[in-house]
Specification:
Strand content: 5-15%
Shape: elongated
Low-confidence stretches: 1-6
Mean pLDDT: 88
Number of strands: 15
Number of domains: 2
Number of helices: 20
Largest sheet: 8 strands, mixed
Radius of gyration: 32 Å
Distance between the termini: 60 Å
Oligomer: single chain
CATH topology of the largest domain: Rossmann fold
Length: about 525
């Protein structure tokens, strides 16, 4: 905690579990009422009548008993401390000036900080320290059956909480001005936690998410506020909250559409229906990103991590994103889930876009479809970049790097049971599992990507896939990347894939995320750009 220029006789901490320190050594105060008395006098600077204190601490005792107990308590406190802590003025008591209380120091600092034009340097550092300290409950664990004292404690906690809220707003403003948006978001969440029904706190949180480009974060903050107000009061957010939400979401839609200058979604006729795709950038070569089992290209591009990954590639390529048949914006009816079906989707897109030959980036089971096209129509593929992919969907006696079919089905049923929420984040993107904005965005894309029935079809198709017998037929340049801690597809499955493809370049990467656009994306981008460089041998 920030130090005070004067060395007090006794330092009393009332935030969190109370404690008292005298000349660097902790003093064990007798009884909870001792702490309560010192705290009450410290936070009430005017002299307090003895009768009021006796009633506060022993509400069930008569006045004579209460005063007697008060005298004994004062004696025990000063005996334990070895110093005179209370001053008497007739029938009134005050706390000696030699006692320093953390709540009073916090009050002085917070008022000065809030009155200042902005927090910088040491002031900002101290403000962050005080926020951490003052977020703890006042006099935690102190309770001795006194209604009047409990009422006072609740009232003073509210008062200090309001001051803490104003200090938090100042910290958030300072961090936001410095461009430290991630830390500003943490303090904004602390502000919301102070009063979960206060709409201005949610507005501030939405504004920070908007500065990050987090459309899902804005939506999650708004929905959290709306849910709280509806559950507790049966009302909707007020006009200011509604207006801020509408303006921020509209601004993010405009930003997202202009950032990559993406055209309207196009539709190519595949064997089982129309396939939705979009073309981003105007690079001299084409790169098709073959998705995993969940995708919805419009919502995917709202995620800054996703769009940033694509932006890093559009200088080299025109990048084609698509929703495989049965998923997202593509045809749902009659869709099948096999590597051949996805290969047909990619070929149909290349035909429709007028692209004779392209590089393919395939992730997870999307790598199976890209690999199938490379095997069956190598004249259409410059090369393969595979990430977190595999050759077989379930285990076999000679393929132990996947779940057995029975275990796979159990996992699939659990996934279906949780469909519509932030399902599977702990497996697919463990680095984001506690990110509320990410969870809200993932829940949204899950709902728009596929129904539970479509999910059943897609992942049952993966379970039954085995491409090992055809891997030796791959005759084009192939890069295989896999993260060591991948929790969805085992690292050994990636090693097997690289061993089985003639001449494949193998790159082991650090990290746990299965999603290529989470975690250390820089290494993935660098490997792709290096492998696809025109000067590559």
């Amino acid at each position: 905690m920030p130090s005070h220029p004067r060395d007090p006789v006794l330092e009393l901490q009332v935030f969190g579990v109370p404690s008292a320190v005298l000349q660097g050594a902790e003093v064990r105060l007798p009884l909870q009422r001792a702490v309560a008395l010192l705290a009450y006098l410290a936070l009430n600077p005017q002299p307090v009548p003895r009768g009021h204190l006796a009633t506060l601490l022993w509400p069930d005792a008569d006045e004579r008993q209460g005063r007697t107990r008060l005298r004994r308590l004062i004696y025990k406190i000063e005996e334990a401390v070895g110093a005179k802590l209370l001053c008497a003025d007739g029938d009134y008591l005050t706390l000696a000036q030699a006692v320093e209380v953390d709540a009073l120091r916090f009050t002085r600092f917070a008022r000065e900080a809030v009155a200042a034009k902005g927090l910088e340097g040491d002031a900002l550092l101290q403000a962050r320290q005080w926020v951490a300290h003052a977020r703890r409950p006042l006099l935690q664990g102190v309770a001795f059956g006194s209604g009047p004292f409990d009422d006072w404690l609740a009232a003073i906690s509210i008062e200090l909480g309001r001051l803490l809220g104003r200090l938090l707003e100042a910290v958030v403003d300072a961090l936001s001005a410095r461009g430290e948006l991630a830390q500003a978001l943490e303090f904004a969440e602390a502000l919301v936690a102070l009063d979960v029904y206060r709409e201005p706190s949610y507005v501030l949180l939405m504004q920070l998410h908007a500065r990050h480009g987090h459309a899902a974060g804005v939506e999650e903050a708004y929905m959290r506020c709306a849910d709280m107000l509806r559950a507790e009061f049966g009302i909707r957010p007020g006009p200011k909250m509604e207006s801020a939400y509408q303006q921020l979401t509209e601004g993010l839609r405009h930003l997202a559409s202009s950032r990559l200058q993406r055209p309207a979604v196009r539709f190519a006729q595949s064997g089982t229906g129309f396939v939705a795709y979009t073309v981003l950038g105007e690079g001299p070569q084409t790169l098709v990103i073959s998705p995993g089992f969940v995708c919805q290209i419009e919502i995917a591009l709202e995620r800054p991590q996703f769009s940033a990954f694509v932006e890093a590639l559009v200088g080299r390529f025109q990048v084609i994103l698509f929703d495989r048949g049965g998923v997202g914006l593509s045809e749902r009816l009659g869709a099948t889930s096999t590597p051949s079906a996805m290969a047909d989707d990619i070929a149909a897109i290349l035909d429709h876009a007028g692209v004779a030959k392209a590089w393919l980036f395939g992730s997870s089971e999307g790598g199976l479809g890209a690999t199938r096209l490379a095997i069956d129509q190598p004249q259409r593929v410059h090369g393969l970049c595979l990430f977190g992919s595999l050759a077989r969907g379930s285990a076999a006696p000679d393929y132990p790097w996947a779940l057995p079919a029975a275990s796979y089905d159990v996992w699939l049923q659990r996934l279906i049971a949780q469909w519509g929420g932030p399902v599977g984040i702990e497996t697919f993107a463990p680095s984001e599992k506690d990110n509320l904005a990410f969870r809200a965005w993932w829940s949204r894309i899950v709902r728009h990507a596929a129904s539970p029935g479509a999910l059943q079809t897609i992942l049952a198709g993966l379970r039954d896939t085995d491409m090992r017998a055809d891997l030796h037929r791959i005759s084009i340049p192939t890069l295989v990347m896999h993260r060591r801690g991948d929790k969805a597809v085992r690292f050994a499955a990636g090693e097997h894939l690289a061993r089985s493809i003639p001449g494949a370049v193998w790159r082991s990467l650090e990290g746990e995320d299965h999603f290529w656009w989470c975690g250390d994306t820089g290494s993935v981008i660098r490997e792709i750009l290096a492998f696809t460089a025109p000067t590559r041998p």
